[in-house]
Amino acid sequence: MQENTLAIIKPDAFRKNHLGAILARYEKEGFRIRAGRIRWLSLREAEGFYKVHRERPFFGSLTQFMASGPVMVLVLHKENAILEHRTLMGSTDPGNADPNTLRKLYGASIEENAVHGSDSPESARFEIPYFFPESEIY
Ligand code: ATP
Ligand code: MG
Predict the structure, then answer these.
(1) Amino acid 99: pLDDT
(2) Among 62, 93, 127, which is best to mutate for testing ligand 1, by the most ligand atoms less than 8 A from CB?
(3) Ligand at shortest distance from the CA of 53
(4) Which of 10, 30, 2, 1 is nearest to 74 (CA)?
(5) 116 lines ligand 1 (CB under 6 A)
(6) 123 C-alpha vs ligand 2 centroid, how far in Å?
(7) Contact 35, 136 (CB under 8 A)
(8) CATH no. for 2-136
């Protein structure tokens, strides 16, 4: 099924100048970039985005990290985009991620793990409109 997924190039990857490398990888792997914008999330926006994790012990640290600098938010399109992007990202902890995944290549720790991706159609349905109105997805 052709589908859209939300990706975020997180503040750590942005700070380390990996934006271009990650975008090039998306293109190389056959994702179409349908929307993209550089944003500096407020703490409120980060908290709203990750609200499923609000009871987790790492919620405060995660949301502060996500609001610590600019990010790039993207809508990626491909056959099975959600799962394909999760595979390309690798495990949450870069130490456990497969070789050549984005988190293995660019992540530093379980928190500073370079990229976010929607993990299901339900989360994509919440996450894409969180950043993009339909009219800005080309
Ligand atoms: P993401 O939602 O960012 O794509 P994920 O789906 O692989 O990552 P989640 O379980 O949804 O992982 O956790 C969301 C984010 O919270 C992780 O990407 C990471 O930045 C942070 N995180 C997860 N587990 C921990 C932890 N044990 N300690 C610190 N931060 C964590
Ligand atoms: Mg997640």
Answers:
(1) 98
(2) 62
(3) 1
(4) 10
(5) yes
(6) 9
(7) yes
(8) 3.30.70.141
Q: Please state the pTM of the whole predicted model.
A: 0.98
Q: What is the structure's pLDDT at 136?
A: 97
Contacts of 48 (CB under 8 A, 6+ apart): 130
Please identify every residue whose CB atom is under 5 Å from ligand 2, which is an ion: 119
State the pLDDT at residue 20. Answer: 98
Out of 18, 53, 77, 116, pick the active-site residue. 116
Read off the tokens for 61.
């640290």
Burial track 52-75 (b if 16+ CB lie within 10 A, e otherwise): eeeeeeebeebbebbbbeebbbbb
CA distance 50 to 39: 16
For the chain, which ranges sit under pLDDT 50?
A: none
Rounded distance from Cα 90 to ligand 1 centre (Å): 12
**Domain locations in the chain as residue ranges:** 2-136
Question: H helices of the chain, where?
Answer: 11-15, 19-28, 43-49, 59-66, 81-89, 102-106, 121-131
Q: Note the pLDDT of residue 100.
A: 98
